[in-house]
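Case study 2.
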Amino acid sequence: MLAAIRTLHAWAGTALAVLAVVFGLTGTLLVVEDDWVRATVPAARVQVDLDSARLGAALDRLEVAEPTLTSVVLPGGAVGVHRLYLADEGFGYGDADGAVVDRWRGAARAEIWIFDLHHELLAGHTGKLVAGGAGLALVLMILTGLIVWIPAWRASGWRVWPRSGARRELIGSHRNLGLIFATPLVVFSLTGAAIVFHGATQALLGGAPKPPTPVVGTGDVDWVRALTAAQARFPEATLRMASRPAAPGQPATIRLRQPGEWHPNGRTTATIDPATSRVVATLDANALPTGIRAYNAFYPLHASSIGGWLYDWVTALSGLAMAGLGLVGAWAFLTKPRRRSLRPQHLDPAP
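Prediction:
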């Protein structure tokens, strides 16, 4: 049985090596995404007043400047720009006053390209499903690796850099690296898969039924009034995101982050009637069922949105460890001496 598990671990791990390298390296780079945005977008270095009136005025100007605007992540934390999401795969950044300072389509900027590679392997929905399946497979690889390790636990150590290129050293490095980072790698792989297969995950956790969408009118949202009203419903929360109506007769949505929420953009919502810019429904994320609150914690755990610089370091090092496990494990397997099949020697018949 152990031999079969060892064989499965070796072959499947080698097959997944390329994906492990991709996910590991891109995950590490995404940890410093905000730093990259501040370094390349001067407006992102400005500390923004998060007052609802100023944010609303900026949103009103952004709507005029970008008619295809669908949603906006508001400034906050370490980034002082509005992140714009436009129709037809358009993106942009807006400054504190609502002026567009950068605009592009698709993965023209590095942070979008890296995110798409990490999230969906640059292959859209199909790539996303492959990434989710690979996340589950990587969890299996870690668990089978631990099973294979048990008989040889005395050989374990803290050395993660091989002393030489000898296969024995590579295997030792692979084993030690896997043991040290087993727990965070399981967390990141499992939460990544859960995010991709969100419907099944929420159902498994006992998701609550969605409340009916309120009947609303049509019109242009007055974002100053809407944000002020949403803030009044949740005075302790931070305004994080605004989404325009998807179609006439549908509501606008404002997301807020309350104290105690881990998600960087919050999961507390205020539903806005575009005709009046008033709040017609709310959803308090802190009052959701336990299963849904657990699901809402998966993204911040996966994206290193909690824990400060210490968790950022754990996430970055875990990404490098995943890439190293894929490279070292595959190299050790591919350089393994193979037994030659013995064939009977046939002598030519005598003349």
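Confidence is low (pLDDT under 50) at residues 345-351.
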